[in-house]
Write a structure and sequence with these properties.
By secondary structure, the protein is of the alpha+beta class. The protein has helices at residues 6-10, 28-42, 47-54, 58-70, 98-102, 109-139, 156-172, 196-201, 204-217; strands at 45-46, 74-78, 92-96, 177-182, 185-190, 222-225, 234-239, 260-261. InterPro entries: ArsR-like_HTH, Carb_Metab_HTH_regulators, WH-like_DNA-bd_sf, WH_DNA-bd_sf.
Length: 268
């Protein structure tokens, strides 16, 4: 569980800031797959951004997005006010639905679920918890905990950099993770979960990940959404301002997702 997937690793977030992907996504099937990969790793994302990244015409992008929406694999929503750049009507953003992610495959779900159930019968709930913790530690192995600067905890820069390290480790494990600055914090977003179906039955897997985040970041973190609960991504908020008993962060975390309109078409 959580093993690296070669296809996902090939599309790692490390390349998302680089030049547009070559238009070698020539055939219809390859183009559709490339768009699905962007929706998975960078969604919610606009049609304009997809076209720029893949070197496709607006009409071509809309045609593929409409097909994905009609088949229930993707959905459209308007950008939230805090996401909007400039004036005018907010652009539509697109992301995969649970059905769309499900088509990517969840290898060994049945076997993994049976194995954990057997572990619980033999060792009880504590055995499952320990297994989940060991799995989470394995994913982040090699990452050192953020260092306290001795004056109120780690700096915001160090915390944000550590969150990026964690996201990269989870991407290597098949979670298509990324980070984004939101308000007075940073969010770790896992756009895919290779064990989502198993985590629905065993929430200890999600709880152990959150525990690993706290240990490495040295601060309270809050899970805002999980794929196992039907959300579009597993989103964890990490405050960048020190939290004390006398004061709380000045800006609350923004919503992890925007209001959706599943019936939306792709015309912007």
């Amino acid at each position: 569980m959580g093993l690296r997937n070669d296809d996902e690793r090939a599309g790692r977030r490390a390349g998302t800031a680089s030049a547009p992907a070559p238009a070698a996504v020539g055939t219809e099937g390859h183009t559709r797959a490339a768009i699905v990969q962007l929706l998975l790793e960078d969604g919610p994302i606009t049609a304009t951004a997809i076209g720029t990244r893949l070197g496709l015409t607006p009409a071509g992008v809309r045609r593929h997005l409409d097909a994905l929406i009609d088949s229930g694999q993707a959905r459209a929503s308007r950008s939230a006010p805090w996401q909007q750049k400039g004036r005018g009507r907010p652009a539509k953003q697109y992301q995969l639905t649970a059905a769309g992610r499900g088509r990517l495959g969840h290898a060994y779900d049945d076997l993994a679920g049976a194995a954990i159930r057997q572990l619980g019968e033999i060792g009880g709930e504590q055995a499952i918890t320990e297994f989940a913790r060991k799995r989470a530690r394995t994913i982040v192995a090699g990452i050192d905990a953020v260092q306290d600067n001795g004056v109120g905890g780690p700096t915001a820069e160090h915390t944000e950099a550590k969150a990026e390290e964690i996201a990269e480790a989870f991407t290597d494990a098949g979670f298509a993770a990324s980070t984004r600055k939101v308000g007075s914090g940073v969010q770790i977003c896992q756009h895919h979960c290779p064990v989502a179906h198993v985590a629905e039955e065993f929430p200890q897997l999600c709880e152990a990940e959150l525990e690993a985040f706290r240990d490495l970041l040295g601060t309270h973190v809050q899970r805002l959404a999980t794929i196992a609960n039907g959300d579009c991504a597993c989103t964890t908020h990490v405050p960048l301002l020190p939290i004390t008993k006398k004061s709380a962060p000045q800006t609350a975390a923004q919503p992890a997702t925007v209001r959706t309109n599943d019936s939306g078409r792709s015309a912007e």
